């Protein structure tokens, strides 16, 4: 069966038709960001960070889930291996998007303002870690590791396609196993540097793992949503089965529960301890518009997706699971904004048009780059030894 699949020209999903509109949308968004920077540089930098973290979460989460799939195996990863790999290989682009964060450090992070640090003894004590050179060097190390693993896994997959050698598969598993340790550690430190240090007097031992789980959830939701948009194509009609979507829905359910568990545990521990350095973090986020957003997150980031993903008929149908994934993607951005913006705005909610421009600009370029990574390869990894049993029939390829 595998030989037949490889010998027959695969159908096209037509996903590349969305590339050009995405590129144009991205360029318009980035041009608007440039105008915003000229008008108000501080507002631009502060609007840029939440949008960067949102798209970064999908790329980093995709790399983590891809390595988890290589280690564990299983048919659940059949439909998402290639989209996950393509999303993981957007890391070089995400590194470029990180440059404005480095340039705007003093306007984003209070610990990067020397005048403020000179007046605050606690910030002076933390300056051994929270300083601009250290922040930049660590970020470069994080991106170097993520890019290395993403492209090494790609190289090993191409090699396995050629030789089908067990030692190549074993090497890919070893790289993935080591990579899981690497990405949990690097995402933890990145979350501390990029997000938690926005309020440097606040700290939480749960924040890193909660951030990492959020990355995995964002990646699962995004690639599942992508699949639901391809199901109507001729290429996908005979391949994507309800069981595939059900497996992905079950895994999303697990990540939704993990996210809720870590988020609530962090809140409970901080509220119970009642330490003056910790409680202001939640105090400013529970009143006014921020408090309303917190309720929205509880309802639409946990309760509603949780109950919807418990229902088999919702997980089995592309239209209904697409609604769940779209909801989770939206909630991921809202939570990121809820985590970041109050550090600058305090209790007063404000959503700048630059935030929307940054979200659309980065997203348009990022999606264009994602499709570029998918071009010229089959969505289904037909060279894997277990692919025949999983798909039974059908071919799929991404091209124009």
Helix content: over 70%
Estimate what percentage of residues fall within beta strands.
Answer: under 5%
Q: Structural class per helix/strand content?
A: mainly alpha
Report the order of strands and helices.
HHHHHHHHHHHHHHHHHHHHH
Give the total of domains: 1
Which features would summarize this protein structure in a list?
21 helices, mainly alpha, disordered C terminus, 75% helix, 400 residues, single chain
3D structure, described in words:
There is one protein chain. Helix content is 75%, strand content 0%. The chain is an all-alpha fold and 400 residues long. It has one domain (15-382). The protein starts with a helix and ends in a 9-residue tail after the last helix. Residues 1-10 and 392-400 have low confidence and may be disordered.
Provide a compact summary of the structure.
By secondary structure, the protein is an all-alpha fold. The chain has 21 helices and no strands.
Please write out the topology.
Elements: H1 2-7, H2 19-39, H3 41-72, H4 81-88, H5 91-97, H6 99-103, H7 105-108, H8 114-118, H9 121-126, H10 132-163, H11 166-194, H12 207-230, H13 234-237, H14 242-273, H15 279-283, H16 288-309, H17 312-316, H18 318-340, H19 342-345, H20 353-374, H21 387-391
